[in-house]
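Reopening this one. Same input as before:
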Amino acid sequence: MKSFLVAAVAAGAMVAPQQPLQLTLPGPTGPYAVGTVPLHLIDPARHDPWDPSGAPRELMISLWYPTRSTTGFPRAPWLPPAAAAQFARDNGLRPDAVRVPVTHGHTGAPVSGCGGGLPVVVYSHGNGGSRSDSTIVVEELASRGYFVVTVDHTGDSVTEFPDGRVPDRVNSPANAAAIQAARVADVRFVLDKLAVLNSGGNPSDSSLPDGLTGALDLGDVGMFGYSAGGPTTASTMDVDGRVKAGLSLDGPVFGPVIDKGLDRPYMLVDARASRATIPELQTFWEHLTNWRLNIGMQGAKHLTYSDFVTLIPQAAGLLGLTPAQVEQQIGAVVPARAIAVQRAYPLAFFDLHLRHRGHLLDRPSPLFPEVHFIP
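Same output, byte for byte:
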């Protein structure tokens, strides 16, 4: 999915307005401010499968974490400049027509251990997306004391390397199996490098924040993914026991894990990717032998569970979208309510399975009447 604002774009949308549209994201609600830092990683053990020169696999990741000191640390952009320009072009806009959001993560701020090791959560984006696509969820987790690692899957993402390169995307049905295999290998490589970071090493060519050494609890690692990041989560758990709990935001499932199932907690949040419409998901569900939960949201669409639930309405005028076309994209859910669900339910899942606390997932809640439990 190269473009997210994909409803009919007005013919004039390629004309930049006098003032660029500034997109925004709602801030997190936890007790901690948020720090972040991008890291450039190179895996010398793997050749990039889509680089004919045989170059090693390169990745961009970002670390998101609680911090108590933000003075002098600027807020990070949702996408760096070249990736932001590509994002605009993907959506039928001139790069000078729109400005991507400024996140609430302060670049390079020191890591706060919050009185103990921080549980770790890894995020995998959807096809053709980026590690920024679920920043609302990521920032909320970080503000609640989690150390979150977001991963760009090179070749299947809008990513920008430190030298300004934005690699081509190669996603197609013919490449699906290879992309999924690369995604899983990416996550396992990142988990290896988190151990290096936690021990005081620096596996990247990027600067690291103060307070990082020893701040991670690598015995408590969870993972979540949006769309194609869902099967990446399940398939990673299938081959790597370091991931203790997995959450899929409207993602299907692929490969051997369908019939093997998992022996660790797993949660499905669905709209388009439903057990009722995807037989493989139902088979996978039946082979889950630990805690499991499937929830949905009334009126939800696929993009309801991403940052685009708030970005699309903001860009509707620029894109020439009618209210009906906006609803086709993000569903009938009021964006503020979708954001509330995005904040509450992933946090509740990781709180339950990494911190062993909380009751929101025990039963439907009157605080979230739009969320239904699917038996």
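So the earlier flakiness isn't reproducible anymore. For the record, The chain is about 30% helix and 20% strand.
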